[in-house]
Design a protein that fits this description.
The chain contains eleven helices and 17 strands. The protein is an alpha/beta fold. The strands form four sheets. Strands 3, 4, 5, 8, 9, 16 and 17 form a seven-stranded mixed sheet that branches. The protein has a six-stranded parallel sheet with strand order 12-11-10-13-14-15, with helices on one face. Strands 1-2 form a two-stranded antiparallel sheet. A hairpin with an 8-residue loop joins strand 1 and strand 2. The two termini are 18 Å apart. 45% of the residues are buried. Bound molecules: NADP nicotinamide-adenine-dinucleotide phosphate and zinc ion (2 copies). One zinc ion (ZN) binds next to loops.
Length: 352
């Protein structure tokens, strides 16, 4: 077994504390990654707090993982020692079902999540990237762009693909009016990708505080949702709305901003149910959809797209000792626009 150090939550809502654990030895098709950076996704907070239920502890969160390959199994073909690689939200899947065959592994019923999941041995808990090392089958590893700084690319592995996938599926591009609801980790990368695709991008944020930043990221328009006039002015305006908000909104108010046949895609996952009024959809043949991350092939396509368009994330780099503080700031919408943990800060001594 491989001895690993990291930070874990030992029970629901607990603060994260130094933790050591074991990972499996390298199998023939596995890669060992020396983790350099890991993004903090709002999902990590939902999971640590058991907000969606089903969390298992101790839990080492983190699914925006980047680093260098430090060892390869005897049959690995796609990577070599020293390559810059990434791991996103899942580390395996059944490889046999329809979604797996279609490159939509994220919808596989036997998906193995990067953390809060169970390894293929059926008993070992998976543990995420708030740690120094991870071992992953080569088919679930991504190649990171050479032209972008690694710490600025970590959040692409979840936030990036979560926005890229629905923007592609619902055909964001020239002539399309796209709204991004919520300007946090997901939202900020959504602006950059939708802008690069050629769509007109509008941000709907709590207040006007983030307006300047959004314009720099490529937003064409910016509105505060605290101002009720926003909802009058934009009625029937958008083709596509991507809702990244992590808590409940009055969704009917937002659906009303879609034009005929427009689509709202939910990617934010609040912990409580959302009430939808049928009229909000029926009166303009509107669609309400959901979308989860993306498959491995599409994630690589997104990384290559970001490389080509020089799209990197706006990050605040923190030592792991500040992770609990970062969680508090994320819950207060005080994030510009993704916290990324520098794993060099992990201290062996804390764990002795
Ligand atoms: P985040 O960085 O915290 O951003 C969320 C943003 O939503 C905030 O910055 C804020 O933006 C807005 N917001 C928060 N509370 C609000 C409220 N009460 N009312 C209105 N707006 C509010 O979170 P994230 O990492 O982007 O994740 C967002 C959500 O997506 C989470 O639920 C996460 O679990 C989920 N997620 C889903 C997938 C998927 O595959 N579907 C993947 C990753 C994450 P403003 O200040 O601009 O209003
Ligand atoms: Zn995530
Ligand atoms: Zn499958």
């Amino acid at each position: 077994m491989i001895h690993v150090i990291g930070y874990a939550a030992k029970e629901p809502k607990a603060l994260l504390v130094p933790f050591s654990f074991e990972r499996r030895d390298l199998l023939d098709y596995d890669i060992m990654i020396d983790i350099q950076y890991c993004g903090i996704c709002h999902t990590d907070i939902h999971q640590v707090n058991n907000g969606w239920e089903g969390s298992v502890y101790p839990m080492v969160p983190g699914h925006e993982i980047v680093g260098g390959v430090s060892q390869v199994g005897s049959k690995v073909k796609q990577f070599k020692v020293g390559d810059k690689v990434g791991v996103g939200c899942f580390v395996d899947s059944c490889r046999k079902c329809d979604p797996c065959h279609q490159g939509l592994e994220q919808y596989c019923k036997s998906i193995t999540y990067t953390y809060n999941g169970i390894e293929k041995d059926g008993k070992t808990l998976t543990q995420g990237g708030y740690s120094n090392t991870i071992i992953v089958n080569e088919n679930y590893v991504l190649r990171m762009p050479e032209n972008l700084n690694l710490e600025h690319t970590a959040p692409l592995l979840c936030a990036g693909i979560t926005l890229y996938s629905p923007l592609m599926k619902w055909k964001a591009g020239p002539g399309k009016k796209v709204a991004i609801i919520g300007l946090g980790g997901l939202g900020h990368i959504g602006i950059k990708i939708a802008h690069a695709l050629g769509a007109e991008v509008t941000v709907l944020s709590h207040s006007l505080k983030k307006q300047k930043d959004a314009k720099k990221m490529g937003a064409d328009n910016f509105y505060a949702t605290s101002d009720l006039k926003t909802f009058e002015k934009l009625e029937g305006y958008f083709d596509i709305m991507i809702n990244t908000v992590a808590s409940e909104l009055n969704i009917n108010q937002y659906l009303n901003l879609l034009k005929l046949d427009g689509t709202m895609v939910l990617v934010g996952i609040p912990e409580k149910d959302t009430q939808v009024n049928a009229f909000s959809l029926v009166k303009a043949r509107r669609n309400l959809a959901g979308s989860a991350i993306g498959g491995i092939g599409e994630t690589q396509e997104m990384l290559d797209f970001c490389s080509k368009h020089n799209i990197a994330c706006d990050v605040e780099l923190i030592p792991i000792q500040k992770v609990n503080e970062a969680y508090k700031r994320i819950l207060n919408s005080d994030v510009r626009y993704r916290f990324v943990i520098d794993l060099k800060s992990l201290d062996q001594k804390q764990l002795l």
